[in-house]
Design a protein that fits this description.
Elements: H1 10-13, H2 19-32, H3 35-50, H4 56-67, H5 73-87, E1 90-95, H6 103-120, E2 128-131, H7 139-146, H8 153-176, E3 179-182, H9 187-204, E4 211-216, H10 222-236, E5 240-245, H11 250-260, H12 270-286, E6 291-296, H13 300-312, E7 322-327, H14 332-340, E8 345-351, H15 354-370, H16 374-390
Parallel strand pairs: 1-8, 2-3, 3-4, 4-5, 5-6, 6-7, 7-8
Length: 391
């Protein structure tokens, strides 16, 4: 497989896009490439939504439909089926409503994940469920637990309810035989999440990986955490499921570390992060008998690295223990070309009411402006495909 051409086939990459969808994608990435415009757009959009101005139709027709599957799971089905039947790419339905802080909303989020697991049961095109720990309990409580601060009696009860929600969802995933990805969050709440997810792995991952944690590998301590968890898995005889990503909260992590005067958990450079990612990826694939992996990356070199290591470790392209994933609306040249070559690929497909999903969409736009070269690469490929279609 020629590394220089695998991801350059724009006909495969954009096969699912109509001419008008291709034009919309080009327009959006042009906007995202302009950092001041993203900042202004964010402020204007937030104001318009808070003021209840009639902008939801416009948002839905542009940025929402490009980066999201729909307003509910049924709304996503046409996208799911199209990607799977025409592009061999599976979907991960991601209920992307963020920042809720009330018990009633945590129960609703839990019920929503249960409903999704029921919905995707037996549906080959949706092999994973997903949720965020802070969707099931107050962020401050996760933080307190991570810092080892004693709970009040009311907080103990609140924590028990978080554990109950986790167990309810993991048990459901186990019964449906659907793998469950649990997203990583900020470092100052992650220890508590790690402990709870490891507990769920020990309970539900006896035969194979059902419960997956997430390693954000811009953190320099995550590889040693994985090695420790691996020892625990061998000792207590359970499998590990792990999604690996570079990470989504870098600016916030560095700012907090500086403000509070502790060493940042973030790697010192982009190259150090890449090295950490590659080391972790190699370790997992060399221990595939115990560790299953979902490789979440928009980095072409990381995908080549995964392919090369799979060959070296004699792992079949479609081994169910190895998946590669990207976000819907981004890096189609990676997703659809990998799937066409026979690898297991899934797109994270966010959904939810337009208003509630806006914080997620704004973060996507901001992340794109901060990843050097990524938006330029998208624009180059979209231009190439527009030209190819005209010819």
């Amino acid at each position: 497989m020629d590394k220089n051409t695998l991801f350059d086939n724009t006909e495969v990459a954009f096969r699912l896009k109509s001419d008008s969808e291709l034009e919309r994608a080009y327009f959006l990435f042009k906007m995202i490439a302009n950092e001041p415009l993203v900042r202004i757009g964010t402020v204007v959009t937030n104001f318009a939504l808070k003021a209840h101005l009639p902008v939801q139709g416009l948002i839905r027709a542009t940025v929402f439909d490009h980066f999201c599957g729909g307003v509910d799971e049924e709304d996503c089905l046409s996208v799911v089926d199209k990607m799977y039947t025409r592009g061999k790419v599976a979907s991960v339905l991601d209920y992307s409503v963020e920042g809720k802080e009330e018990e009633e909303q945590f129960d609703l989020a839990c019920d929503k994940i249960i409903k999704i697991l029921d919905f995707v049961d037996q549906k080959e095109a949706i092999p994973f469920g997903v949720f965020k720990p802070s969707g099931f309990g107050r962020f401050a409580l996760w933080q307190k637990r991570s810092e080892g601060i004693a709970f009040t009696s009311d907080e103990e009860k609140e924590w028990s309810r978080i554990e109950e929600r986790f167990d309810k969802v993991c048990k459901k995933a186990f019964e449906c035989d659907v793998a469950l990805l649990i997203d990583g969050e900020e470092s100052w709440m992650q220890d508590a999440a790690d402990d709870l997810v490891a507990k769920m792995m020990q309970k539900y991952n006896k035969e194979k990986a059902i419960v997956y944690n997430t390693l954000q590998l811009y953190r320099h301590d995550r590889f040693s955490y994985l090695q420790h968890l691996h020892e625990e898995a061998k000792k207590h005889d359970f499998k590990i499921g792990m999604k690996i990503v570079r990470g989504a909260y870098m600016e916030k992590e560095n700012e907090r570390a500086e403000e509070k005067g502790y060493p940042t958990p973030i790697c010192e450079s982009k190259s150090a992060t890449d090295a950490n990612f590659n080391t972790t990826l190699a370790y997992i694939l060399e221990n595939i008998d115990v560790i299953s992996v979902f490789i979440g990356t928009h980095n072409e070199q990381s995908c080549y690295k995964a392919i090369t290591l799979m060959n070296t470790c004699k792992i079949d392209k479609n081994d169910p223990r190895v998946w590669l994933g990207q976000l819907y609306g981004m890096s189609d040249h990676i997703s659809f070309n990998l799937a066409a070559a026979g690898y297991n690929v899934a797109k994270y497909l966010p959904f939810g009411p337009v208003r509630d999903v806006m914080p997620y969409l704004i973060r996507r736009a901001e992340e794109n402006t901060s990843v050097a070269g990524q938006t330029t690469r998208e624009l180059d490929l979209l231009s190439k495909e527009k030209k190819r279609r005209r010819l």
